């Protein structure tokens, strides 16, 4: 395999290599995949400790992609070229996205606060988010392949 020069230049093929790991969509997908894997571990521990006295269930803090999106958006200035275009920027999240601290609605006599149905639902949600991230990566890779073939 040829070593890449400055800017991803490959002297053998005369082409520039693209580092997709630097694209925002792939950074966010990797973060979501890592978060989903970690959350699956935490939820599995909760389920494993369903009969442990005084055990309190744990969960990960939800991901917030706004900071990453804002840092990526600040690299390229968006300009409104027509009055009919949307204004640049990311809108603030609405009230339906606000996170409130949850308290268990059920507790065993021994103080255990793990609700298996709740944990299984969270596991299912995590699996769906993981699968969605995988599909997102596949679709974007296919779009890149199509775009690179179009120039040939």
From TrEMBL:
It comes from the Bacteria. Transmembrane segments: none annotated. One of its GO terms (biological process) is bacterial-type flagellum-dependent cell motility. Keywords: Bacterial flagellum, Cell projection, Cilium, Flagellum. The keyword Coiled coil does not apply. InterPro entries: Flag_bb_rod_N (IPR001444), Flagellar_basal_body_rod_CS (IPR019776), FlgB (IPR006300). Pfam families: Flg_bb_rod (PF00460). Residues 37-56 form the Flagellar basal body rod protein N-terminal domain. It is found in: Bacterial flagellum basal body. GO terms for cellular component: bacterial-type flagellum basal body, rod. The keyword tRNA-binding does not apply. The basal body constitutes a major portion of the flagellar organelle and consists of a number of rings mounted on a central rod. In Gram-negative bacteria, at least four rings, L, P, S and M are present, whereas Gram-positive bacteria lack the L and P rings. The rod consists of about 26 subunits of FlgG in the distal portion, and FlgB, FlgC and FlgF build up the proximal portion of the rod with about 6 subunits each. Belongs to the flagella basal body rod proteins family. Structural component of flagellum, the bacterial motility apparatus. Part of the rod structure of flagellar basal body. This is Flagellar basal body rod protein FlgB.
């Amino acid at each position: 395999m040829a070593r890449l020069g400055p800017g991803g230049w490959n002297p053998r093929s005369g082409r520039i290599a693209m580092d997709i790991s630097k694209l925002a969509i792939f950074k966010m997908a990797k973060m979501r995949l890592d978060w989903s894997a970690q959350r699956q571990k935490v939820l599995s521990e909760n389920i494993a400790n369903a009969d442990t006295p005084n055990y309190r269930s744990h969960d990960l803090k939800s991901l917030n992609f706004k900071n990453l999106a804002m840092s990526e958006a600040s690299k390229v200035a968006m300009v409104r070229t027509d009055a009919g275009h949307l204004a640049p920027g990311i809108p603030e999240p609405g009230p339906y996205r606000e996170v409130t601290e949850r308290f268990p609605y059920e507790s065993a006599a021994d103080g255990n606060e793990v609700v298996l149905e709740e944990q299984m639902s969270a596991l299912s949600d995590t699996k769906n988010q993981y699968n969605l991230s995988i599909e997102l990566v596949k679709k974007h890779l296919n779009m890149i392949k199509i775009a690179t073939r179009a120039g040939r």
